[in-house]
């Protein structure tokens, strides 16, 4: 069954976010939402509580990356907000991932970012100077994340199938870089449509600008959900 469609609330502050979410209230919809760095740094924890109290499932995308003790304590602080998902970087390593897992209550799913969907193979090689391909790195980081018992990873849809060959399908593969047919890729490189992501084995998708910048965001969201779930 198709998992959640998270709308990335990449807005500069509380007011445009409330206006956007009011459109969904008017349509009696409570989509899962992602609060990332732009909105969180502008509004802070109280706004996360406000959105949570309004009934939206929340994915807090803070991409934690620090020493294990600091990340473990940050996870405790985030857990107190009652959010449902939280990101951290898989590159923080097994000790950091395990420390985060130990601090997280069962209600908080940790998602480890593997290689950003904005990365191309060329840019990945420039940064890593690795013998591995980008896809191999994503699979490797997914294996480390699974060993540390985090709930899943953030990857592009194009790696989801490879991860499923190595790990149980229940290990979450949440995929940004989603574009509806005809939309610009903008700064994303490894993009897929909602339908492709589903066929490739993603357990959930993250969609920002294809919905937030659409002339009718509710209709765009409904189109994404339809494409994402039509092979169920
Ligand atoms: O962790 C993320 O959510 C994330 C990881 C990644 O590899 N790529 C990626 O695009 N994202 C986020 O997913 C959203 C994608 O937004 P759009 O490109 O506008 O759909 C943004 O909020 C990004 O911060």
Automatic annotation (TrEMBL):
Annotated active site: 63
Pfam families documented for this protein: OMPdecase (PF00215)
Catalytic activity: orotidine 5'-phosphate + H(+) = UMP + CO2
The UniProt record lists the keyword Lyase: yes
Sorted UniProt keywords: Decarboxylase, Lyase, Pyrimidine biosynthesis
Pathway: Pyrimidine metabolism; UMP biosynthesis via de novo pathway; UMP from orotate: step 2/2
Cited InterPro entries: Aldolase_TIM, OMPdecase, OMPdecase_AS, OMPdecase_bac, OMPdeCOase_dom, RibuloseP-bd_barrel
Quaternary structure annotation from Swiss-Prot or TrEMBL: Homodimer.
Protein name: Orotidine 5'-phosphate decarboxylase
Species for this entry: Convivina praedatoris
Lineage of the species this protein comes from: Bacteria, Bacillati, Bacillota, Bacilli, Lactobacillales
């Amino acid at each position: 069954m198709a998992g959640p469609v998270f709308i990335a609330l990449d807005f500069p502050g509380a007011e445009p976010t409330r206006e956007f979410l009011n459109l969904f209230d008017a349509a009696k919809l409570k989509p899962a939402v992602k609060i990332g760095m732009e909105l969180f740094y502008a509004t802070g924890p109280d706004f996360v509580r406000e959105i949570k109290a309004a009934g939206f499932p929340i994915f807090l995308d803070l991409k934690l990356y620090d020493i294990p003790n600091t990340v473990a304590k940050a996870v405790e602080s985030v857990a107190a907000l009652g959010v449902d998902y939280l990101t951290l970087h898989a590159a923080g390593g097994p000790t950091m991932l395990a420390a985060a897992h130990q601090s997280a209550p069962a209600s908080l799913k940790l998602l480890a970012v593997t290689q950003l969907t904005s990365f191309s193979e060329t840019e990945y090689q420039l940064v890593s100077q690795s013998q591995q391909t980008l896809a191999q790195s994503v699979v490797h980081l997914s294996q480390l994340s699974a060993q540390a018992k985090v709930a899943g990873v953030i990857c592009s849809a194009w790696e989801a199938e490879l991860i499923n060959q190595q790990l149980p399908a229940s290990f979450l593969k949440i995929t940004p870089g989603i574009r509806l047919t005809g939309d610009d890729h903008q700064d994303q490189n490894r993009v897929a449509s909602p339908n492709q992501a589903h066929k490739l084995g993603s357990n959930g998708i993250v969609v920002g600008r294809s919905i937030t910048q659409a002339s009718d965001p509710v209709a765009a969201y409904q189109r994404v959900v339809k494409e994402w779930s039509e092979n169920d």
